[in-house]
RNA sequence: GGACGUGUAGCUCAGCGGGAGAGCACCUCGUUGACAUCGAGGGGGUCACAGGUUCAAUCCCUGUCACGUCCACCA
């Protein structure tokens, strides 16, 4: 004897228990059956500092739905999880913690101690998000969990760097970078966010050296004038023709700078003359190059004015300096105007401070070269985007790609495997000046030493070469005495996205030829957000193709952005964030997952409302109670039950509906049409199985025909199992729990639901005549219910139904299902016969049904109803007649469309005639 | 400036060449054992606007308007 199911499902106790059981059993790992086809996805590694937000919840739910589906299909399904070391983000977190705890800062602490602190932090807090993924039910293979700073992944990073350097695809260059004065590091173009802010154009007059006048320039960044080295005008600008080649005296600074002619100057803008600051503006840098101008860097790493500016400004922040400059221009009576404006200003996406273009040496990847095969792979369909249109975004960026600055002046990350040594001057001195340094790129220090040794030996240097801690140590000491030569390693680390770019193959063991790499690379599907197509997807494509010769994934499924119910982006500052963990606590994980799945349409953002989650929580409850109903009615699974052999129409019908649903859901899952997956399941389980099948089954389950009852019991149990199987990928917990609960009776279960086989049925499970027959019963009952409600017939009143004009089939259907029709329609009788007086008619197929509701009938209301129905048929008739009367339509439309319209016309006319007759009778009565 | 996307019921969205759909909300009715986290019924839309293609347009094309996002640029 088994315990009855509780009235509702209790996610709080069930979820942790089931997850632990799954994980412990090893069910998340891919099967080791060598014949199983591999299916792999790699997780977009969340930042190790992260905590699960709603976007993660969506992205990982979709991945889990996919991987659970493929696993059930018998694939060797691998979902490889891991986290990203997240350079800036993590360094930020730990620095903030140090500050809050009143500890010394990272610079006082020193690099090694600080990095050790970060590792310590990672060991304590780095697992947060990984455990939150478990709460989401994510069936990742945790035994393969990776971290971007793992030894294996770090080795992959070094190998990639060295090889690309050898190939000339990584190089060091001095050019303008986006400099973040808060973090004092370079950042890539992608990490720069343009924000619109209030600003102004300040119009400054620069006096001509010869005293013959002035030239006016405008700027939004007055402080940069400290670094001006020219004024440019357009070569065709008549106003300035005579001035080109003359010199102006830069106010405040006193420097003489030339007026140059350059097409960059736009005569339409401002005065047509533009100040040129090559060291602090990307466009000006190019102008400077063309005219051989000096690039004077006036900022230090903190964004303060440096020693290249007049003393009064030194040490002042750029914005303070801006004010000072404006004041001085005003005082000098050289301020020619202020024009308020709103304009886009670059900000650091992490720091939020204004980014400065700054001239430094950095490492770059030749992205243009790497992008070519990556573009081609998508053009050739080796990797496809879903929805397809995202490939446009990908192409757009890839075809205009710029060199990728990969060095970061941070401590947390992969340190760049480059060592520097001095140049040897002819007299044997070691020259450690910046421009003279020799670069040795190698995977290890020993290799770098060997490279350097060979390099210097070739120049006749025969002393020892060794690695020291810094350039300072190299310059100091007795090295210069000529006894030995010091190398020092690059201080910088790599952009975090450099290692993420290797993720699909580095996590599988590359560069070792591991069996995982062999089996699971290329991965099948990447599920990710569009916001990281550039950051991540593009880079994986470039790196994957370059280093493995194959695309890293066959399909990129782009999921939407989750917004709040008003459509606003969720952000902590707006206070509109929905914490998925709170929602899981409140509604259960399955409800949250189902909601995200159902809302995951293709081309738009998801506006999430709690009501929606509540609704899907109710859906879970509905399934739970359907199971409870089945249990109470002895619907126990039967060993060897063959759904193909059922005899009753009702059983055949639900078998067919189940098969139809399975086909729909399978197709939708294959296409990653997640909303269709959810909607198909919802409709089938609630509207078909619960609303109709179980209601239709009740009379049989309560009846005395034991054979019929047994078949329905077995069928019901079977359908429920199919529901659990199909719903499992989306709602893993409640389905697994029901699987377990229903295992207590009937034949033993093999194991977890999650490890079961995905359903697929023979085509003949769908029986056309059963479909038609139950469809007819459903229509009949619906008509009866509708009329009763409209006529305000009291729910308890049992009324007679007659069917006139019924054909043989309808008559026999009525006979076969009379009990059902009586109970579902709350009827007294249901027989063939003419409509009695005081009855209301409805049309069912070729027949006319009549409900004898004389006691409740409201003549006026009934007339109105009939008139309205007739009018609606009339509208149909008119529209279809117009079509059929059009010779072009008859000549050009497809035959089946014409036939369809003829049928439609006949049906509408017949229905109209029946209702018209009834209306006439009614009018006769009154 | 460029690209992409979106305008369908009060709300959120599906449909996308031949009869306007779902969920929620709303209204009416219903508590004697699956489920009130429920059941039955119902109202509600010139499918943004204007042209065009077609026998036929919510659906395809062009344009307009509105909204969103991304990229670039603005001395």
Considering the chains and any ligands shown, give keywords for the structure.
926 residues; alpha/beta; four-stranded antiparallel sheet; four-stranded mixed sheet; 32 strands; 45% helix; 18% strand; RNA-binding
Oligomer type: single chain
List segments where confidence is low: pLDDT < 50 over at least 5 consecutive residues.
none
Number-wise, the strands total: 32
DSSP strand (E) fraction? 15-25%
What percent of residues adopt helix (DSSP H or I)? 40-55%
Distance between the termini: 64 Å
Number of helices: 30
Spatial shape: elongated
Biggest sheet details: 4 strands, antiparallel
The overall pLDDT, averaged over residues, is: 90
Give the strand order of the largest sheet, numbering strands 1, 2, ... along the chain. Answer: 6-5-14-16
Q: What class would the helix/strand composition place it in? A: alpha/beta
Fold blueprint:
Blueprint lengths: L10 H15 L12 E5 L11 H19 L3 E5 L1 E2 L3 H14 L5 H4 L1 H15 L2 H8 L10 E2 L3 H16 L3 E11 L4 E3 L4 E16 L6 E6 L10 E4 L13 E3 L6 E6 L11 E4 L5 H10 L26 H14 L3 E14 L7 E10 L1 H13 L4 E3 L3 H10 L4 E2 L1 E2 L9 E4 L1 E2 L5 E2 L6 E4 L3 H14 L5 E5 L2 H5 L8 E6 L3 E2 L1 H5 L2 H4 L8 H6 L2 E7 L3 H16 L4 E7 L2 E2 L16 H8 L1 H11 L6 E2 L2 H23 L16 H22 L3 H28 L4 H22 L4 H10 L26 H23 L8 E6 L3 H9 L1 H8 L1 E6 L6 E6 L2 E6 L6 H26 L2 H6 L2 H31 L1
Parallel strand pairs: 1-2, 3-4, 9-11, 15-26, 22-23, 25-26, 27-28, 29-30
Antiparallel strand pairs: 5-6, 5-14, 7-8, 7-13, 9-12, 10-11, 14-16, 17-24, 18-21, 18-23, 19-20, 29-32, 31-32
The protein binds one RNA strand of 75 nucleotides through strand 8, strand 12, strand 13, helix 11 and strand 28.
């Amino acid at each position: 004897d088994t315990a009855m199911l509780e009235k509702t499902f209790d996610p709080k106790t069930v979820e942790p228990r089931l997850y632990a059981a799954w994980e412990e059993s090893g069910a998340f790992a891919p099967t080791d059956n060598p014949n199983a086809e591999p299916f792999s996805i790699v997780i977009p590694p969340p930042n190790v500092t992260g905590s699960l937000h709603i976007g993660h919840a969506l992205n990982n739910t979709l991945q889990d739905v996919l991987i659970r589906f493929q696993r059930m299909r018998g694939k060797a399904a691998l979902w490889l999880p891991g986290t990203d070391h997240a350079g800036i983000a993590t360094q930020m977190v730990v620095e903030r913690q140090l500050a809050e705890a009143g500890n010394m800062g990272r610079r006082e602490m020193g690099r090694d101690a600080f990095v050790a602190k970060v590792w310590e932090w990672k060991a304590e807090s780095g697992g947060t998000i990984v455990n939150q993924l478990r709460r989401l039910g994510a069936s990742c293979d945790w035994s393969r969990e990776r971290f971007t700073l793992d030894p294996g992944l770090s080795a992959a990073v070094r190998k990639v760097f060295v090889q690309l350097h050898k190939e000339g695809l990584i190089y060091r260059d001095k050019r303008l970078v986006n400099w973040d004065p808060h973090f004092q590091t370079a950042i890539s173009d992608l990490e720069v966010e343009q924000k619109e802010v209030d600003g102004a154009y300040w119009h400054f007059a620069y006096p001509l050296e010869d005293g013959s006048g002035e030239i006016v320039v405008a700027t939004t960044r007055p402080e940069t004038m400290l670094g001006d080295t020219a004024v440019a005008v357009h070569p065709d600008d008549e106003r300035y023709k005579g001035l080109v080649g003359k010199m102006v005296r830069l106010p405040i600074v006193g420097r003489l700078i030339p007026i140059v002619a350059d097409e960059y100057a736009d005569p339409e803008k401002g005065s047509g003359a533009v100040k040129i600051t090559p060291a602090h503006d990307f466009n000006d840098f190019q102008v400077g190059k063309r005219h051989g101008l000096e690039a004077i860097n006036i900022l230090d790493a903190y964004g303060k004015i440096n020693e290249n500016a007049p003393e009064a400004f030194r040490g002042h922040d750029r914005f303070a300096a801006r004010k000072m400059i404006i004041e001085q221009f005003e005082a000098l009576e050289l301020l020619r105007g202020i024009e308020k404006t709103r304009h886009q200003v670059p900000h650091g996406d992490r720091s939020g401070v204004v980014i400065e273009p700054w001239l430094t040496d950095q490492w770059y990847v030749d992205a243009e070269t790497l992008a070519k095969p990556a573009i081609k792979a998508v053009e050739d369909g080796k990797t496809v985007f879903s929805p397809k249109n995202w490939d446009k975004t990908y192409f757009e960026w890839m075809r205009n790609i710029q060199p990728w600055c990969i060095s970061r002046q941070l401590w947390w990350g992969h340190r760049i495997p480059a060592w520097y040594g001095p140049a040897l001057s002819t007299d044997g001195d070691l020259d450690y000046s910046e421009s003279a340094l020799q670069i040795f790129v190698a995977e290890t220090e020993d290799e770098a030493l060997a490279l350097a040794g060979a390099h210097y030996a070739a120049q006749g240097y025969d002393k020892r070469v060794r690695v020291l801690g810094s350039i300072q140590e190299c310059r100091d000491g007795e090295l210069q005495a000529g006894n030995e030569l010091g190398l020092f390693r690059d201080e910088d680390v790599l952009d975090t996205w450099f290692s993420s770019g290797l993720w699909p193959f580095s996590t599988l063991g590359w560069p070792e030829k591991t069996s995982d790499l062999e089996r699971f690379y290329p991965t099948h599907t990447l599920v990710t957000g569009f916001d990281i197509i550039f950051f991540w997807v593009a880079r994986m494509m470039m790196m994957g193709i370059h280093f493995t010769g194959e695309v890293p994934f066959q399909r990129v499924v782009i999921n939407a952005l989750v917004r709040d119910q008003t459509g606003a982006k969720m952000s902590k500052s707006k206070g509109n964030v929905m914490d998925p963990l709170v929602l899981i606590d409140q509604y259960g994980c399955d409800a949250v997952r189902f909601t995200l799945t159902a809302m995951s349409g293709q081309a738009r953002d998801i506006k999430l409302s709690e009501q929606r989650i509540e609704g899907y929580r109710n859906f879970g409850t509905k399934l739970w109670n359907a199971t409870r109903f089945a249990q109470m009615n002895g619907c126990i699974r039967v060993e060897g039950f063959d759904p193909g052999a059922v005899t009753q129409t009702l059983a055949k019908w639900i078998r067919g509906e189940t098969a139809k649903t399975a086909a729909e859901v399978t197709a939708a899952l294959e296409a990653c049409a997640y909303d269709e997956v959810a909607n198909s399941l919802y409709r089938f389980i609630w509207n078909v199985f619960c609303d109709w099948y179980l209601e239709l089954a009740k009379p049989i389950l309560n009846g005395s025909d034991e054979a019929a009852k047994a078949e329905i019991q077995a069928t019901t149990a079977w359908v429920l199992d199919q529901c659990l199987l199909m719903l499992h990928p989306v709602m893993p917990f409640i389905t697994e729990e029901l699987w377990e609960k229903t295992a207590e009776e009937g034949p033993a279960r093999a194991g977890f639901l999650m490890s079961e086989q995905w359903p697929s049925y023979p085509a003949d499970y769908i029986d056309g005549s059963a479909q038609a027959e139950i469809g007819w019963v459903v229509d009949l009952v619906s008509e009866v219910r509708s009329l009763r409600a409209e006529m305000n017939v009291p729910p308890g009143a049992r009324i007679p139904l007659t069917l006139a004009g019924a054909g043989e089939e309808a008559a026999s259907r009525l006979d076969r299902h009379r009990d059902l029709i009586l109970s579902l329609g709350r009827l007294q009788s249901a027989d063939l016969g003419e409509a009695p007086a005081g009855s209301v008619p409805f049309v069912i197929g070729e027949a006319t049904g009549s409900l004898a509701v004389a006691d409740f009938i409201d003549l006026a209301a009934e007339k109105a109803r009939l008139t309205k129905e007739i009018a609606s048929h009339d509208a149909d008739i008119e529209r279809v007649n117009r079509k059929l009367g059009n010779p072009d339509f008859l000549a050009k439309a497809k035959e089946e469309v014409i036939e369809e319209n003829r049928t439609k016309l006949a049906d509408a006319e017949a229905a109209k005639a029946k209702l018209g007759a009834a209306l006439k009778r009614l009018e006769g009565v009154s």
